[in-house]
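Q: I'm a student working through a structural biology exercise. My instructor gave each of us a protein and asked us to get a predicted structure, then write a short paragraph describing it. Mine is Sugar ABC transporter permease. I'm not confident about reading structure output yet, so if you can add a plain explanation after the tokens, that would really help. Here is the sequence I was given:
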Amino acid sequence: MLMADVATRRAPRLARLAAPAPPARGRLLAKAKRNSAAWGFLIGAVLCFTFFSWYPIVREVIMSFQKPVYGGGNTFAGFSNYIRIIHDPTFWKAWRNTLEFTILALVIGFAVPFIVAIVLNELRHARGYLRVLVYLPVMLPPASALLLFAYFYNPQYGLFDDILRTLHLPESQWVLQPGDGFFSTAMIAVVIASTWMNMGAATLIYLAALQNIPGELYEAAELEGAGILRRIRHVTIPQTRLILITLLMIQVVATMQMFIESFVLTNGGGGVDNNTMSVVMLIYQYAFAMSGASNYNSASALGVILMLVLAVFSGGFLWATRERG
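A: Happy to help. First, here is the predicted structure for Sugar ABC transporter permease. I'll explain a few features afterward.
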């Protein structure tokens, strides 16, 4: 009787084991049905990237090797567009200005948000209000924020020259100041406006990273007699290294594509003697501010050069930081 009961209980299980496995196609269909939502999101993302990122890149590369023909259409032009822009003196001036802006933006715009975040992290009162004040410029439209600085920099009635006159100091033309050397007054003025406009987001990211550092590390450093500078060097910077590296790469890529700062502050002119002309601004002028339909192809060629430079930098930076990690 007992053996019969055991056999009865095991019969369904044995039947399931003995049943043939569903075909592979059926398993794949069942798995696809379970993951249908994920596939839908993935396909949508791929389509968006295809039409709004990858296709424009491919189209830009193709246009950089073409020139328009009479009656419409394009024909293959080889490297003529690249040769044309390389022989343009403004090309080298724009690259020098872009490199100058990037260096100044890293010296000022990369260090200042980190210092502000450290100060905010040390405060015990009014921290929330100060966060809002620091992030407020980010909430302003970039054009509006830059128009505010254009008013401040105005040589006739601007705030900064009023302060200089009050202090009996020499006045400045700021973004319209002539000068062809490195780190000109005009470029420094553009970097100051850009830093004020963009530092809020980086400050909050740094602040979030600082607040995730265990307090025991600071307490141990204090017990060993470490001052604030030693705590920053031996605790803060190592603990926020990943955030610092990530934001450094993002900032370099972003500053190399500087456009709206110089465009708004100089009314689209690139400053006196093109001393604030950037590579992206030169692309804009090739495409829209110069006569001749072939300038679209020259603008595409310059865009491809910039893309390759940024790709090489990003790849090399990621490889170097990976090796060090």
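A: Here are two points you could use in your paragraph. The CA atoms of residues 41 and 47 lie 10 Å apart. The mean pLDDT is 82. It's a good idea to check both against the output above yourself.
Q: Great, thank you!
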